[in-house]
Write a structure and sequence with these properties.
With about 240 residues, the chain is of the alpha+beta class. It contains six helices and twelve strands. The protein has helices spanning about 35-40, 45-50, 55-80, 135-140, 145-150, 155-175; strands at about 10-15, 25-30, 85-90, 95, 105-110, 110-120, 120-130, 190, 200, 210-215, 220-230, 235-240. The protein is globular.
Length: about 240
């Protein structure tokens, strides 16, 4: 199945058609196949240098389209040329905009990228669902005790789906707070069921009641999650037209 076979909720759109409202999440799905040249032309000199270090053409294409599309989308929301979008890094490397603009986050898996934008801090994560021989070991190492027990109560495809739900929700949260892999994944709990929820945080740094977890799965072969430091978030989903 083509990685760009997306759910109907992801409406084809051109950046700039929709304004970002307060307490809104806009999610853009970007297929990472096809001609990358129009996206590659938008990259900065530093991004072009990074691009030159990729050994495989497929990796180059995914980087060109994903990061070029990020510039295209951010430029449209900010009302500036994509080439003028400037990034700065937070304390642990999370990128932010160098001038006033939305919070954003980029994730990719397989041949699909996802870009989330909001007026509040956020993180997004997608994973293409595939069979993992090491699923049990990964969960035992990274999931909390309650998450691991909930996963072990399931079998077959239900267990596999629950694993990816848990993983993407955890990744989205740690990306939102900018901690990356420096934060133990078992220091907080998320739900594994269809309804995403931030259940507990044992290190005291965040109050789960202040957060929203949303399912942003873009297609039948993917699981995706978004985490935002806000409640009552309204979500709109788009597919980048022409990508």
């Amino acid at each position: 199945m083509d990685d760009s076979n997306l759910h109907a909720s992801f409406v084809p759109a051109v950046p700039g058609q929709a304004a970002l409202g307060a307490n809104e999440l806009h999610v853009w799905a970007v297929p990472l196949h096809g001609d990358p040249e129009r996206f590659g032309a938008l990259l900065s000199r530093a991004e072009q240098q990074k691009l030159s270090r990729f050994h495989f053409a497929d990796h180059r294409r995914r980087y060109q389209i994903g990061h070029g599309a990020l510039r295209l989308i951010l430029g449209a929301y900010m009302g500036i040329d994509p080439a003028d979008v400037e990034f700065v890094q937070g304390p642990r490397g999370k990128p932010y905009l160098g001038r006033k603009g939305p919070f954003f986050n980029l994730s990719h898996s397989g041949k699909l990228a996802m870009i989330g934008l909001s007026t509040v801090e956020l993180g997004v994560d997608i994973e293409k669902v595939r069979h993992l021989e090491s699923l049990h070991e990964i969960a035992r190492k990274h999931f909390s005790e309650s998450e691991f027990n909930a996963l072990n109560a399931l079998q077959g495809e239900a267990r596999e789906l629950a694993f990816y739900r848990c993983w993407t929700r955890k990744e989205a949260y740690i990306k939102a707070i900018g901690e990356g892999l420096s934060m133990p994944l078992d220091s907080f709990d998320v739900s594994l069921c269809e309804s995403p929820e931030f259940l507990a945080c044992r290190d005291g740094r965040e109050d789960p009641a202040r957060w929203s977890l949303l399912d942003v799965s873009p297609g039948p072969e993917f699981v995706g999650a978004a985490a935002l430091r806000a409640k009552g978030v309204a979500m709109k989903c788009f597919r980048l037209e022409g990508a």
